[in-house]
Amino acid sequence: MGIKIRKEVEADYRKVEEVTRCAFGYPDRVERGQIGCPYEHWMVHELRKRDGISSLSLVAEVDGNIVGHIICSKAEVRKDNDAISGCVKFFYLIGEDLTCSVF
After folding, report:
1. Could you tell me which of 3, 18, 16 has the C-alpha nearest to residue 71?
2. DSSP assignment letter at 65
3. What is the largest CA-CA distance in the chain?
4. Where would I find the beta strands (DSSP E) of 1-81?
5. Which letter does DSSP use for residue 52 in this model?
6. H or E element, residue 31
7. Are 94 and 22 a contacting pair, CB within 8 Å?
8. Residue 41 half-sphere exposure, CB side, CA atoms within 13 Å?
9. Rounded to whole angstroms, how far apart are CA atoms 86 and 73?
10. Per residue in 51-74, is it b (16+ CB within 10 Å) or e — as a string?
């Protein structure tokens, strides 16, 4: 089983959002972790429109099936009058048993 990494295309959007929902949608996630929200798939959708870096939005495939996604977004951290600009990445894979690894 080899993993193929390629650039995400518009035809992948729905499947990527499904994989994202699967990766982050385990029962009681927000309550157990005390962080996050149940809408990561929506966040991916919004990042694409707002400030996602499309050339750095990639999918991972196994046997033609999308099993992972990485998306990079512009970011800025501010404190008082100081600001640092950079890039934030979100990367995750789901396994055959629908377990998730988030990096």
Report:
1. 16
2. E
3. 50
4. 4-7, 58-62, 65-79
5. B
6. helix 29-33
7. yes
8. 15
9. 9
10. ebeeeebbbbebeeebbbbbbbbe
Please state the φ and ψ torsions of residue 89, each to the nearest 5 degrees: -120, 150
Per-residue pLDDT tens digits of the chain, which is 103 residues long: 688 889 999 999 988 888 887 777 666 666 666 655 567 777 787 878 777 677 778 898 888 888 888 887 777 788 888 887 776 666 666 665 555 554 4
DSSP letters, 77-99, are EEETTEEEEEEEEEEEEE-TTS-
Burial class for 22, CB neighbours closer than 10 Å (0-12, 13-18, 19+): middle
